[in-house]
């Protein structure tokens, strides 16, 4: 349903080669569709028909894809969903413009959905969208800043704040809050949505960081791309805190090098450090603890709702996080 609706908002007009074909590229590649599915499931769990939420869900997926285009440029990534990144195919200027256009196009289905569902909900929904966009940009800024300034040494708490902002608001908090508003036809004031979205979104992100190290054909992104980019994950934070004096100079050089000057030997060395200290297993254990907290918040958040396929779907997403391979 979401893919069909998205297609209605992706123009097939000129200039196609330099704008609208690149705009439609990432949405056409598929993906997990977790964010729009979570929005629709929450709306249905609170009593809405799926048609009431599908355009809002499409707006979320379109915005997510626009940010992926920008993220790939900022991260200098080479692969997305099993294919070359948009900027690798078309160059940075065209990809950047396509990402901007896709972000603007994502507003249209949301506004039309809000008008059809409950016009008086428009302000709270747009306010939530504005906060989600602001939190996402702030989280991205933290991650980019840590990579630009190699003297920075983020802690676990710093990492979790970054993930709350960059990942959790778009991946879980906003889809759930938006779905609940459409289902209940009222403004959401319950902070349990934020707590649930944080615990679930952080578990999802940490598992994503782990999968990035495992790689493989099904992953859909560059294997060990986070290490090539020297991204601060829980695993890299653990490595930085456990270095010997002999290892420290090489690690400092690894952080200061650009992506282009990092070597396969550098990446393999850091990965070996992670394996040696058990950083990957520790991250997985931490993520499972967050998932347990998410299940607790889920029980509180939806305890008054009758059992339904959608309620079970939301609950099972939490454990699906650890069953997925990409």
TrEMBL record:
<dbReference type="GO" id="GO:0046872">
    <property type="term" value="F:metal ion binding"/>
</dbReference>
<dbReference type="InterPro" id="IPR033749">
    <property type="entry name" value="Polyprenyl_synt_CS"/>
</dbReference>
<dbReference type="Pfam" id="PF00348">
    <property type="entry name" value="polyprenyl_synt"/>
</dbReference>
<dbReference type="InterPro" id="IPR008949">
    <property type="entry name" value="Isoprenoid_synthase_dom_sf"/>
</dbReference>
<dbReference type="InterPro" id="IPR000092">
    <property type="entry name" value="Polyprenyl_synt"/>
</dbReference>
<dbReference type="GO" id="GO:0008299">
    <property type="term" value="P:isoprenoid biosynthetic process"/>
</dbReference>
<dbReference type="GO" id="GO:0004659">
    <property type="term" value="F:prenyltransferase activity"/>
</dbReference>
<keyword id="KW-0479">Metal-binding</keyword>
<comment type="similarity">
    <text>Belongs to the FPP/GGPP synthase family.</text>
</comment>
<protein>
    <submittedName>
        <fullName>Polyprenyl synthetase family protein</fullName>
    </submittedName>
</protein>
<keyword id="KW-0808">Transferase</keyword>
<keyword id="KW-0460">Magnesium</keyword>
């Amino acid at each position: 349903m979401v893919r069909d609706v998205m297609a209605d908002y992706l123009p097939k007009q000129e200039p196609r080669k330099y704008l609208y074909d690149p705009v439609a590229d990432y949405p056409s590649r598929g993906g997990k569709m977790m964010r729009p599915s979570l929005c629709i499931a929450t709306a249905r769990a609170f009593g809405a028909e799926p048609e009431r939420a599908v355009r809002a869900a499409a707006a979320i997926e379109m915005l997510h894809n626009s940010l992926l285009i920008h993220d790939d440029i900022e991260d200098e990534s080479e692969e997305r969903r099993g294919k070359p990144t948009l900027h690798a195919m078309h160059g940075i200027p065209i990809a950047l413009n396509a990402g901007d256009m896709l972000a603007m196009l994502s507003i249209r289905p949301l506004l039309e959905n809000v008008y059809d569902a409950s016009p008086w909900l428009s302000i709270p929904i747009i306010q939530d969208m504005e906060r989600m966009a602001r939190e996402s940009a702030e989280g991205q800024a933290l991650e980019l800043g840590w990579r630009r300034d190699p003297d920075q040494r983020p802690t676990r708490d710093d990492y979790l704040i970054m993930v709350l902002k960059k990942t959790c608001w778009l991946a879980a908090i906003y889809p759930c809050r938006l779905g609940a508003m459409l289902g209940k036809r009222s403004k959401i004031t319950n902070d349990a949505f934020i707590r649930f979205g944080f615990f679930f979104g952080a578990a999802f992100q940490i598992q994503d960081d782990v999968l990035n190290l495992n790689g493989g054909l099904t992953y859909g992104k560059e294997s060990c791309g986070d290490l090539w980019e020297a991204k601060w994950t829980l695993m890299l934070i653990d490595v930085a805190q456990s270095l010997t004096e002999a290892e420290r100079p090489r690690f400092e050089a690894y952080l200061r090098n650009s992506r282009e000057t990092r070597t396969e030997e550098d990446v393999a060395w850091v990965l070996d450090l992670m394996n040696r200290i058990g950083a990957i297993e520790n991250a997985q254990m931490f993520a499972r603890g967050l998932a347990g907290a998410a299940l607790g918040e889920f029980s509180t958040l939806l305890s008054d709702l009758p059992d339904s396929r959608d309620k079970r779907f939301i609950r099972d997403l939490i454990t699906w996080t650890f069953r997925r391979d990409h």
